[in-house]
Amino acid sequence: MVKFNHFSIVEKTFEEKNSELKSLGFEFDNKSEKEVLNNFFSVAPIDEASLQASDKLSFTSFLNSNENLNWVIFWTLALQVQDFIVNFEFKPEKSIEFAKSINLPMIDSEMSVDNLISAIYLLLLSRRKNGMSLIEYWVSEGLIPVDNQYHFFNDKTLASFDTAVVKREKVWVETSLDSQKCGQYDLVYVEIHRPAFVGKIPVVMTASPYHLGMNETASENRLHKMETELSEKQIHEIITQPVLPVDPNYEKSKVYSTTEAEQSFTHSWTYSLNDYFLARGFASIYVAGIGTKDSDGFQSSGNYQQVYSMKAVIDWLNGRTRAFTSRSREKEVKADWANGKVAMTGQSYLGTMSYGVATTGVDGLEVILTQAGISSWYNYYREGGLVRSPAGFPGEDLDVLAELTYSRNMSGADYLSGNEIYQKQLDEMTRALDRKSGDYNQFWEDRNYLPNVKNVKADVLILHGLQDFNVTTDQAYNYWNAIPETVAKHAFLHRGAHLPIHNWQSIDFTEVINAYFTAKLLGRDLNLNLPPVILQENNKYESWTSLDGWGKSGRLQHNLGSGTTTFENHYNADDFDRYCKDFQVFKNELFEGKTNATIVNIDIPQEIIINGAPELEIKLKINDSRALLSAQLLDFGQKKRLPDHPVTVEANALDRGRLFKQENLVEIPLQNSPYQVISKGFLNLQNRESLMNVSSILPGKWMTFRLKLLPSIYKLNMGDKIRILIYSTDFEHTIRDNREVTYEIDLAASKIILPH
């Protein structure tokens, strides 16, 4: 059974509710309860004659009867307009119980005209079975006109802008950079989608290095071989310092200025959430940044040069830098249509750019919505002094990603003029990222946004999947915990992998973002009472809850056992080949206890909600001077759990405007499974003291150290079992070192530490 979770509803006074309903055409003054209900359904874009009021009366018959309106009749009618099937999905006499069971917001008072009006107001804000709120569905069906004017309901903008007459414009924004030392500022190509409006409008901006194409052939040719031995490193301390780019100071030639772009386009990739806002009066802007098709410069992949190239667009929207009508730089174009207020959106690399731009403190950036973004590129391609690939992408590194997104080379003229210098810069990147040692260095420091989070002024909305082992949870966790106390922040943590939730059935995420962006970008009060953390509960279907934070100070410790145990690093040739060909085979056999690993099963003695980063304290020795260590923490044993990907509930159920962009409604089902990964971690044992210190390993000598696993929030009940896997090579993530190395662990002196 569906269960809705509403976080977007803003509390209003009765007078405000009545006034907002009047603005939609609902007139309830001086009417009885039945007359109020009749007016509501007669104005609504529905066939009221098809409605059933009770087990014996149609709605029409009820209106003509002497029977009084009660909450049972109201909810019988309300559920039908929410697309639930009367007599089959619910019985009329059980309508209230059914509405409560699916968690619809209700008025818990006796029937009266005022309470009925309040109930109608809440009903419009409630989700229908197809995933749209009733007000948004009825607007898409023509409740209010498409007049290119702003209309608001419960502090959210409605889809009243004509997406059939959207202006699509090309401009080239002048950055503060010269990333290839050409003697002039790099230009970045920008695509603008904006609705017709007489006045100034806000911008929802997505910075996507993928936007203008990907060079998959070049990228695949640069993939790194994972089958290699771990290198022994010299003892040393690693020293880096935050260094931001120094912009050149070139003279800017004077050119003719206009307020109209001269080039347009017809089709391009768009982001679903941006489409939603386009129909509500927000311009939608896409920029791919330096080193991409139709732009200048080098694809520097994650450093502040790339970040500044995205920031330049916000500067242009606020009149602080120039843009041109073409790449020839002959005519300047001004953004006189923009009100200067910007939100940034995007997932993965796109969300990463919003993290980075926010750390510049640029004026005009009011809020970021970062979905599965990277806050430190080292932690994406490295961990604990090791090369560590993101889930599903063994062999990828930052130079591989640079090749993928250097779409300038996909333009013949740019290839001829720029490829030679680009290849030299790319070779330098490959050297600097240092796959041999896996250590942190200045290259990675230059791609770490965390030291500059102190500069963030924009509100921060974070969305991250707790089963995301591509962009791992520490990326969000570290950024979240570095945000200044003066900055508003909220996190949505779901049980999926590397994916968005704006089209999920169980939560009104899109409506929450609507309320937030409407306030921040249109200069209205933010009245939304949003908790710090909104968490999808594990092992429960369509259940979300509120938390006050991410990362708790309590610690539950449990020893790993008694005596000692050993495991080997080396696999025979057949097994090694099988695992190299398909890392999923390795994962399955690892979890089932069929690989080289120490396995510890622990029965949980009490209910605990893990909240933060678990740690393993391990006493270990090896018979070599170089070694890596991998560990995973599992919720183990057959039971119902939420998998990491949703299924389609209804195809094309969501209308993002008015017959504009349709999207599937999805949800994560509850399924039987033998285990689920809670967390994992990896470490080069030469970096066991800290990431910034490389020490020696003495063969045969015991070492005690801590291995921090990825942060999560996960509830375990008394009697649940966790499985801890400690092993060496991970065929999905680490280099595939097949040397003959023996690991011995003192279980009695080792423990798991769970934050709660």
UniProtKB/TrEMBL annotation:
UniProt GO molecular function: aminopeptidase activity; dipeptidyl-peptidase activity; serine-type peptidase activity
Protein name as catalogued: Xaa-Pro dipeptidyl-peptidase
Gene3D superfamilies named among the record's database cross-references: 1.10.246.70, alpha/beta hydrolase (3.40.50.1820), Galactose-binding domain-like (2.60.120.260)
Localization per record: Cytoplasm
Catalytic residues in the record: S348 (charge relay system), D468 (charge relay system), H498 (charge relay system)
Assembly and interaction partners: Homodimer.
Domain named Xaa-Pro dipeptidyl-peptidase C-terminal: residues: 514-753
Location of the X-Prolyl dipeptidyl aminopeptidase PepX N-terminal domain: 3-143
Group of enzyme by EC: hydrolase
Organism domain of life: Bacteria
Gene: pepX
InterPro entries reported for this sequence: AB_hydrolase_fold (IPR029058), Galactose-bd-like_sf (IPR008979), Pept_S15_Xpro (IPR008252), PepX_N_dom (IPR015251), PepX_N_dom_sf (IPR036313), Xaa-Pro-like_dom (IPR000383), Xaa-Pro_dipept_C (IPR013736)
GO cellular component: cytoplasm
SMART domains according to UniProt: PepX_C (SM00939), PepX_N (SM00940)
Record-level GO BP terms: proteolysis
Record-listed E.C. numbers: 3.4.14.11
Role played: Removes N-terminal dipeptides sequentially from polypeptides having unsubstituted N-termini provided that the penultimate residue is proline.
Keywords: Aminopeptidase, Cytoplasm, Hydrolase, Protease, Serine protease
Species for this entry: Lactovum miscens
Family membership noted in the UniProt record: Belongs to the peptidase S15 family.
HAMAP family reported in the protein's UniProt record: Aminopeptidase_S15
Subcellular location, principal: cytoplasm
